[in-house]
Structures are given as C-alpha cells and as structure tokens.
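TL;DR need structure tokens for one chain.
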Amino acid sequence: MPSMILIKNANIIDGTGKPPFKGDILIKNDRISAIGSFPNMKSETIIDGFGLNVVPGFIDSSATSDHYLSLFSNPLQKDFLLQGVTTIIGGHCGSSLAPLLYGSLKSIRKWADTDLININWTTVAELKATLNRLKIGVNFATLAGHSTLRRDLIGEEIRDLTVSEMEVFKNALSQAMQEGALGLSTGLSYNHSRAVSHSEIKNLLGPVSKNKGVYATHLRNEKEEIVDSVKETIAISEETGVPAIISHFRPIINFEKQFKEALALIDSHLNKGNIFFEVNPFNTSIAQIYTLLPIWAQSGSLETMMETIASDIHRPKILEELSNSGIEFEKMVIAEARDNPYVIGKNLKEFSENRGLNIYNGLLALMEITRMKSLLFYENINSAMLVETLFHQRSLIGSNSASLPESQSTLNPERSANTFPEFFKIVGSRNVPIEEAVKKITSVPAKVFGLQKRGAIMDGWVADLAMLKDGQAVNVIINGQLAVRDGQLTGGLAGLAI
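>> reply
TL;DR here they are.
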C-alpha cells in the first residue's frame, strides 16, 4: 500500500513565480499526486498547513559537504534540513568526490583529512550508489571537479596536458556526464589550476555541451583582475554554448569599483551568453591558509609550500610581502586548525601575541603547526553591495558551506545554518514578492542545473517540500518522507544522490 501524506489548508507558493494560492497537496510515495481541494480525503499522515507557506524544497546551489566529507561523517545534514533545503549541489571549485581515475582525493586535502575515509568508488555512478547505500538526509548532486581529475592524471605537476592525457580526461568527463554529473567545475584561483589555459577549459567543455551540462568556476582573480576573469568566463560560455556559473561572486572591500565593472560586464552580455553567479547573504569569506601566501610561494604541494616558508632564503621575502599586502590579518579568526583545536575561535592577532610574534610571523607559525591545513574567517565583503547582488536576475543562492558534525573541531560560519532564513529576512525588508524569492531558490536553480521534476510543486513531480512560517522551516518533506516535523528532525535519511 502506498504511503500517503495530505497537506491541508496551505498557502501554496509553487516555485514558478505565480502568485500564492490556497489548497491541499496529496503526496503518494515520493511524488506529488494531486493539488486542489480534498475536504473528504483520508490519509495516514495529515499535516495542517493553516498559516504556513508550502514551497518547493530549497536548492543550495553551492554546498561543500562533499569537500569536508561530512556527507559521510554527518549524513543527516541537519543544518540544511532545518532551513528547508532538500537538495545540495557539490563538486564546486574544481574539487569533487567523483569521477576519480586512480582513487585520489588530493584536491580536497585543504578542507578535510582524506585518510579518514575508505574510497570504494571511482565513477560518479559508483559514488551515487555508495551514498544511496549509506543513506543521506538531503538530495546530493555533483559537478565533476577539474582539479580532482587533473591531479589524479598528472599528480602535482603544473603543466599543460598532453594530447593523450586530454583524451583520457575527456573520456572520464563524458562518462561522468552520462552518469549524472551536472557539468564541470574549475577552481582557477587555486595553485594547481591557476596556470590552466583558456583552450584547455574550452576543449574539456565538449562533453559537457553534448550532455547539456553547466560550467561553474571559481574565478582566477576576485580582486584587481576580476573584470578580466569575468571576461574569460563569458568568452568560454559564448564559445562553447555551455551555461556558466561564477562561484562566490562577491564585492571584496577595496575592490568595489572592479566588482561593479564586472557586474556591468555580465549585464551587457545577458542577451548573448548564459551567465549566472552564486552568492550568499553574509560578509565573511573563508580562506584556506595557504592562499594567503604571495602567489609565487603558492607553488607545488602543501608539503612543498611548507618547505618554502621554512627556507632561510624565502621566508624573509614572504614576511616582507605579507606586511605590504594590505590584507587586514588582525580581522581574521581561526575557524579550523588541523590537530590544534585549542586555537579555534582565536583571532590571528591573539594567536600571534600569545606566541610573542608579530602577526605576519604568527600567520606562518599557524601554517607550520597545522601543516597548511587551516581555515580562517575574514570579514572582507561589502555588505551593502552584497545585498544588491542577491536580487540580480542571474544570481543563485548558495551557502558555500557544509553541515558538519557538532563534535568536529571547526568553527562553523553563520551561513552554514542560516543562509536561507537570512535570505528571507532580507526579502521581507525589501518588499520583494515572496513568489519571486521562492522561484530564485527552487525552480531557477533546478532549471540551470538540469534537475528533472524538482524545484516546483506540480502533479507528478518529486515531493521535495518545505512548509514555512516567517521564513523558517516548520516541516520538510524529502522524496515524500517527513524529515522535519513541527521544527524537529525526524531522523529520517530520505535524501538521494541524484
């Protein structure tokens, strides 16, 4: 006998942008069976929707639970569920859990300890099967990470791919796309991808275009050269016909002028290219500690960088360049420090002073004790400009965060548990029609990423729903199963790797 849930007397916002309407929703198994008025309908589970907005479950366009391996260590993913998020998109910034050529996850070492996980997959299909066997709390879809494949293919070398290596890469990417990968992602600001050519990316997007996928990129430069970086992204999209998504597009303080120019550039190409960007409503960046080094010192593996900062020749030059960088290191807070949990929550100035060091030597000391595996929070984003970007016609909302276990020695950013409630708070303050706000975080990303029969409340579509009161999730249904009831987690693991 099919399981049934009946939601009665709700204010339905269907995700398409249409005005809200009153009605009942009948769910059978994992599908929306009917929408209308069913005063005499009986069901094993009846939820009173009076005073609540029923919306499609939110799609987090840029989550990092794969980077932090918390899909395995915290499969419930409660931080997303309690916001009303039913689907998270991973594999961003060039790093994904699959596809793998030889089982290496070197590209995510900067976020997580990969030795803690037994990798028993190589393909996207095998990864999905693994996650579905283990069970997860939210739906998970992934891009294929450029750096993950590239480093599996050529290791730590910084060079162009050979013709044969390019063919291996394209074949693996083509298989990944056929098995459900959403597209290709690059992290062009990171060490191993910074020198990757425009032509390499364009060439690799062949299989993505053929399979109607997307291209997501962490720009080469988000500061003084952001305009050129956006130009490159627009050109790649227009040359290949592949929709492009700029990850974490944000107005960094002291570079607002360049950001405005980059945004104007996107606006000027809306009729020519298919360009989107992802943003969240908080003014704090998360920096991998090695990215604070001068560019020339970000060479090779993490171990190589450790040797560079320890060098009597290079260390004085690094310290000099750090002191002249203009970065406000005193505003940075230690969010993660591998094997050194006692320093988490301290700001970098306090950490340095406790060791009798100036802040630049303190930064290098933190690099040394954590072996380059540390994260810092940095309030470096212009809040007023950021809010304006939230409502741009091509913006997607993504937390750029993971749902981590409470016991993990990490300081979680506010956006990990509050991105979507904060978004609705801003929506209310600006009198944005709620149906437009809901559309931006449901049907729009579903269409951009090619998620089938998700992102809207329609007959026959997957029953991923959230019921909201004042922007807060009261009930959440994933694949037809209650994951949150009356604001409390049910403990159900109804999510799927899709």
